[in-house]
Amino acid sequence: MAELPSLEELTEDMAAVVPTVDAKTNGQYGDGLGSEDEERQIKLILNHLRSTNERYESVEREVAYPELDRRCDLVLPTGIPVEAKLIRYWRANGDPEPAMYGHVFSPFHRNTLLTDARRLHASEFGEESGLLGLFYTRADSDPKAVEALPDRYTAANIAEKVVREVDYWYEAEASVCRIAKFDGLQHTVHGTGAAISWIVE
Asked: What's this model's pTM, rounded to 2 decimal places?
């Protein structure tokens, strides 16, 4: 029997197949995976992993929380629940996405990366849970991005900021699990990025 995949391995394997999935995706707002919504991206990537790697066949999607009328995005075969988010600060046409910062870092809204961390930490799933982010950035060769992009907008800095914010707002212990980069995607805006994961305890 194949060894069950960890969150770190899921992160690495998702990033590794993103270019392949991207090449097969005709997006609603331009070719490629990057402009698709969160649910469709996770579905396409996971379906590809399931079809090419038996270790991912038993990853579950949309699993009910034991004590809440809500569903968790993924549960790994090891039993670790994982909530996933897109971290994508530009729309497909290149304009900034004004709601994205709150979608990731707001502790005041119901369905953000931070409130996902709080919900997982308080849940009855178990002592350990995970967060997964699909992070997109614009290419360094994009003049508009170079002019407008803060130097600290990197996968590593975003990952560490999530750790600090989870600790600040909820006094929960979060740590960066893995950052796995990908590039060479079709979309003119969403052409490069990384899969980022965190452990929440």
From this structure: 0.93
